[in-house]
């Protein structure tokens, strides 16, 4: 039965005898035969070649990478190589076997000599267990069998699921705290003094929000919006932002401990990827010379410039989205529908968010092509180096794709648009959009909510439906031919391999980026969950709910819908850890900026402790934020409007003045002392928040050791026993 186990299957179209493709295929298979591979051919609509490597290859591998003490004790004993390692070695040899025409499998697949190459899903105990217990929706709250995943898919996939499980587990804590903060906002802060003042401001006339067809309006019209704003923009959110900065650090430190425990149990703590790769190169070709490390400053400079150019393009797309919102706002305000006119700002933000999501989907594909092209220019030495370079580039591009628009809304919207009588305009025509009268944080909240909901619903549905439909279609196409063969050629249909190879071929293709895509999706989600969490406290809850499904979704895809991934050894999550640490620092900076710049938290505190009735009149009987709204609105004389501002004066006759959000003098519209006071307070808070948060992060990183003590002791004992064993073998020889 063991003789019928095949390591890999190569699939090819049936080419004409004597054709170029047929000759190339024969040359490649001859090279494999020279290396001692057993090859079996089965013909159907396609040609299937099963390949099995000779035992000597695995014996060489064990001999090269055996631990020193094992080598001394039993030099001739060879245990079976795990299936995952076996597939990995065979894949390496297949990918690096060169034909007399100096072509490798990769080149032959480009030229359509071979259509597919994959290891088989075997009907073994581990697979049946994973299909029944892990790749099921009903196991959504059950612990993952990481050890079994490792036995079937290898260490890299097992570490991904271990990391995802750990991340989801700790997200649960952040989700609970975020929900508590949000509920507290609904119950406690929605009835704040500031909201009351806005709801009661029926005499405060505000300046028109657009040039044409916009009337003067009453501040009390935005009562509901104000309540929503103060659900998010309150003292609780500041504490939650600080909590999330600490959570991000503690999560990574605890993951490092978890990872150390897991890889020590696998005996991979000191594993050397470079040594493994060199061993496989030598097994494949004894004459192999290692590729030397090289660095070209010229090439690095060219790549850096191209990366900066791509970032500039992505920022340009964010500018295009801003221009869209400005024009959409102008068009909505001129609409014949009353609802669109009244809700023009909200509609512009919401449609802008949907458009932003579409640009994310499109640019993700473009970013991948560009990142791959840049990696080819770099000419990395090894596959793992190529993977690391690709990871950094694609993450950088994806970060700007996802966050450029959010950065604009958070830190620039409503701050660079000028003031009544002197608005900043695009092409001298459309005036730049303003924040909502209740504050800028609401716009950021809407944008975050829409993007996270769309990303996590549409993307997940597509991620499952596309492979499922593709699998069903492939199965349907194969079935009729298969039945005819069974009826007409019984002797061939009896082959036990045929059905298994066909069913594996019908599954969806996997490639070297299949796992990478899952990681990237989760790391971008982690960025959303931490960087702007001050504006959207429900982000951890949405991420937590998404991840519960994501784990099972990935499991079902890998076990039931896709071909078997080529296992890879690993002892950590690689460069992703550095990316996550960078996001942790960006989260501190991002949340500090949101609270200092986007939120009204600082202006309110400055008012409370400097200008409020509590300070000026020593009146302790009133709420200290009484009068804040009146204090934060400037006065504008209607006669100073630009000539083409055609507001409908509706409410204007009383005093011919209107109010707008800013701190400016009524006579010459220059900034008031309060503006500079608040500006200084914002800056001071930002510096203080970031220094305190970073210090707390550093203390947390120091307080929680990366490696648990028992793991260190285990490694110490292992070193001691190895040296002891060496000594026993060395001493008798001297005697």
Give an overview in words.
With 735 residues, this protein is an alpha+beta fold. The longest helix is centred in the middle third of the chain and has 48 residues, at 441-488. The chain is 64% helix and 7% strand. Helix 16 runs parallel beside helix 22 (576-598). A hairpin with a 3-residue loop joins strand 2 and strand 3. The two termini are 50 Å apart. The model is unreliable at 68-78 and 480-493 (pLDDT under 50). The radius of gyration is 32 Å and the shape is elongated.
What does this entry show, briefly?
This protein is an alpha+beta fold.
Uncertain runs:
68-78, 480-493
Total strands = 14
Shape: elongated
Q: Structural class, please?
A: alpha+beta
Largest sheet: 4 strands, antiparallel
Distance between the termini: 50 Å
Spatially, the strands of the biggest sheet line up as 2-3-1-4
Q: Please, what is the average pLDDT?
A: 84
Proportion of helical residues: 55-70%
Strand coverage percent: 5-15%
Q: Number of helix segments?
A: 27
Computed Rg:
32 Å
């Amino acid at each position: 039965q063991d003789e019928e186990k095949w390591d890999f299957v190569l699939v090819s179209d049936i080419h004409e005898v004597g054709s170029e493709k047929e000759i190339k295929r024969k040359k490649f298979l001859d090279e494999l035969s020279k290396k001692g591979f057993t090859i079996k051919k089965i013909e159907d609509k396609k040609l299937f070649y099963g390949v099995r490597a000779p035992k000597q290859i695995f014996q060489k591998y064990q001999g090269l990478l055996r631990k020193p003490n094992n080598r001394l004790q039993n030099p001739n004993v060879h245990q079976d190589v795990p299936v995952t390692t076996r597939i990995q070695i065979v894949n390496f040899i297949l990918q690096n076997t060169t034909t007399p025409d100096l072509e490798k499998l990769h080149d032959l697949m480009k030229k359509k000599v071979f259509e597919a190459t994959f290891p088989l899903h075997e009907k073994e105990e581990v697979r049946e267990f994973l299909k029944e217990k892990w790749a099921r929706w009903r196991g959504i709250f059950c612990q993952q069998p990481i050890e079994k995943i490792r036995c079937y898919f290898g260490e890299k996939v097992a570490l991904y699921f271990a990391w995802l499980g750990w991340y989801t587990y700790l997200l649960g804590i952040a989700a609970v705290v975020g929900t508590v903060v949000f509920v507290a906002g609904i119950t406690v802060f929605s009835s704040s003094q500031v909201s009351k003042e806005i709801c009661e401001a029926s005499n405060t006339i505000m300046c028109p929000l657009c040039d044409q067809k916009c009337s003067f309006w009453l501040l009390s019209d935005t009562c509901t919006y104000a309540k929503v704003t103060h659900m998010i923009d309150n003292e609780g959110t500041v504490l939650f932002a600080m909590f999330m900065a600490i959570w991000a650090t503690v999560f990574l430190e605890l993951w490092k401990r978890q990872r150390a425990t897991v890889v020590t149990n696998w005996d991979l703590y000191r594993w050397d990827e470079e040594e493994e790769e060199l061993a496989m190169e030598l097994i494949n070709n004894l004459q192999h010379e290692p590729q030397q490390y090289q660095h070209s400053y010229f090439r690095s400079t060219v790549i850096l410039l191209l990366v900066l150019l791509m970032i500039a393009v992505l920022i340009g797309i964010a500018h295009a989205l801003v221009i869209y919102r400005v024009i959409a706002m102008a068009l909505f305000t001129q609409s014949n529908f009353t609802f669109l006119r009244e809700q023009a700002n909200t509609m512009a933000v919401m449609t802008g968010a949907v458009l932003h999501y579409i640009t994310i989907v499109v640019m993700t594909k473009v970013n991948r092509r560009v990142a791959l092209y840049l990696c080819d220019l770099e000419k990395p030495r090894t596959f793992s180096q190529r993977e690391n370079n690709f990871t950094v580039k694609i993450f950088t591009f994806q970060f700007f794709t996802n966050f450029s628009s959010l950065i604009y809304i958070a830190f620039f919207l409503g701050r660079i648009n000028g003031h009544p009588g002197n608005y900043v305009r695009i092409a001298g025509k459309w005036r730049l959009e303003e924040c909502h009268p209740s504050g800028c944080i609401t716009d950021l909240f809407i944008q975050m909510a829409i993007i996270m909901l769309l990303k996590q619903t549409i993307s997940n549905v597509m991620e499952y439906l596309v492979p499922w439909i593709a699998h069903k279609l492939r199965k349907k196409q194969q079935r009729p031919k298969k039945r005819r063969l069974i009826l007409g050629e019984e002797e061939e249909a009896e082959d036990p391999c045929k059905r298994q190879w066909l069913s594996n071929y019908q599954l969806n293709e996997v490639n070297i980026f299949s796992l990478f895509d899952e990681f990237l999706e989760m790391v971008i989600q982690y960025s959303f969950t931490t960087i702007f969490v001050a504006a959207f406290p429900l982000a951890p809850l949405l991420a937590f709910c998404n991840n519960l499904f994501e784990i099972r979704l990935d499991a079902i895809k890998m076990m039931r819908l896709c071909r078997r991934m080529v296992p890879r050894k690993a002892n950590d999550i690689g460069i992703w850890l550095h990316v996550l640490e960078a996001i942790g620092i960006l989260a501190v900076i991002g949340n500090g900026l949101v609270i200092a710049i986007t939120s009204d938290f600082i202006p309110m505190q400055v008012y409370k402790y400097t200008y409020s009735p509590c300070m000026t009149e020593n009146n302790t009987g009133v709420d200290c934020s009484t009068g804040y709204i009146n204090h934060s609105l400037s006065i504008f004389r209607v006669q100073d409007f630009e000539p083409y501002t055609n507001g409908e004066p509706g409410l204007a006759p009383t005093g011919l003045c209107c109010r707008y959000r800013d701190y400016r003098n009524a006579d010459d519209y220059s900034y008031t002392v309060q503006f500079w006071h608040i500006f200084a307070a914002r800056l001071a808070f930002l510096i203080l928040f970031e220094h305190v948060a970073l210090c707390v992060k550093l203390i947390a990183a120091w307080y929680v050791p990366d490696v648990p003590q028992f793991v260190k002791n285990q490694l110490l004992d292992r070193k001691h026993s190895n040296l002891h064993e060496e000594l026993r073998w060395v001493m008798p020889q001297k005697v």
